[in-house]
Amino acid sequence: MRWGIPLLAGSPEDESITDPHIFVDYVARVKGIDREALPDRYLMTFRYTGALDILDELYDLTLVEVHRDYPIYVFEHRGVKMGFRYLDVGAPLSTLILEGTIAWGGRYFVYFGGVGVLRGDIPKWAFIVPDKAIRDEGTSYHYLEPGPYSYPSTMIQRLIRDTLSENGVDYFVGGVWTTDAPYRETKFKRRVFMDMGAICVDMEAAALFAVANYRGVELGCLFYAGDVVGDEWDLRADDSDDSSGVDIIRRMLLYSLDVLARL
C-alpha cells in the first residue's frame, strides 16, 4: 500500500471486477433498448440549472429510460443527433453517470455548471473555460496515477473558446480546484491552489476529466461564476438576478450544443 494510504492502494491499471458495460448490457436487455440507436454526442449539466426545461422548449425530445432518475433525452441540433443527461453534484455520482453514458455509446461530451470563484474580480455569471483541474478529491485516483492535475479534451476546449469568441463572449481561462469537502475549502488550500493556477472551485471536474481520459473519450466543459471563495466567503446573494441567470444558462446551453455540432 503506497504511503499507507488506502486510496492509493493498487493501480488504475488493475483489473476491475465491476464494469459499466455489464450493467448497461443488462438494462438494454431487460428494457429492450437499442444501444445502436443512441447518439455519441452528449450535453450534460446539473438539475439546478433547469436546462431540461429549456431544451424541452426548443427541441422535440425523445425520452430513453436507461435509468429512472437519470434518463437520456435524444434530440437533433443543427441536424446532428445528440443526447442530454443530468449529472449529479459530487465526483462519485457524476462519474457514475458519465461511465454509464459512455457505456451507452457516448464518445463526445460537453458539460456546464456553476462554480465558486477564488478571485473577487471575476463577476457573477462570468463564463469560465477551465484548462486543468486540481485533484483535491478521491475519485480521480481510481482512474489516473497520483498527480496534481487532470485535463479536459484539448480539442473540445478549443472549440468552446472559438465558439464563445465568435459570439462576442468574454471569458476567463484557468484551473479549477475540485474538492470533495465544500465546507473545508481552507485559506491554506486556496492560496496553494491559486499558485497552481486555480481561479475557481467545484466538486466534479477533476474526476470527470480523469474518467474521460481513462475511457478514451473527449470531454470538455465551461462554467459560470457564482459565489466568491476569497479571504472571506461571499455568497453574492445580494447580486442575485434570476433573469440574468436564466439567460446565461440558456446561452451556455446553446453554445455547448454548437460545439457538439462542430465535432
The radius of gyration is 18 Å
Low-confidence stretches: none
Give the number of domains.
1
Coarse structural class: alpha/beta
Q: Per DSSP, what share of the residues sits in E-state strands of 2 or more residues?
A: 25-35%
CATH superfamily: Nucleoside phosphorylase domain
Briefly, what CATH class?
Alpha Beta
Count of strand segments: 11
Total count of helical runs of at least 4 residues: 7
| Spatial ordering of strands, largest sheet | 5-9-8-6-10
Helix-strand topology string: HEHEEEHEEEHEHEHEEH
Please give the largest β-sheet.
5 strands, mixed, barrel
End-to-end CA span: 42 Å
The CATH topology is given as Rossmann fold
Overall body shape: globular
* Multimeric status of the protein: single chain
Helix content: 25-40%
CATH second-level architecture: 3-Layer(aba) Sandwich
- Average pLDDT, all residues: 96
Would you give an account of this structure?
This protein has 263 residues and is of the alpha/beta class. Helices cover 33% and strands 28% of the residues. The chain contains 7 helices and 11 strands. It has a 5-stranded mixed β-barrel with strand order 5-9-8-6-10, surrounded by 4 helices. Helix 3 (91-103) packs parallel to helix 6 (205-215) and helix 4 (154-166) packs across helix 7. It has helices at residues 20-31, 51-58, 91-103, 154-166, 187-195, 205-215, 242-262, and strands spanning 41-46, 62-64, 72-77, 80-87, 108-117, 127-136, 149-150, 171-179, 198-202, 218-229, 233-234. It has one domain (17-262): Nucleoside phosphorylase domain (Rossmann fold), CATH 3.40.50.1580.
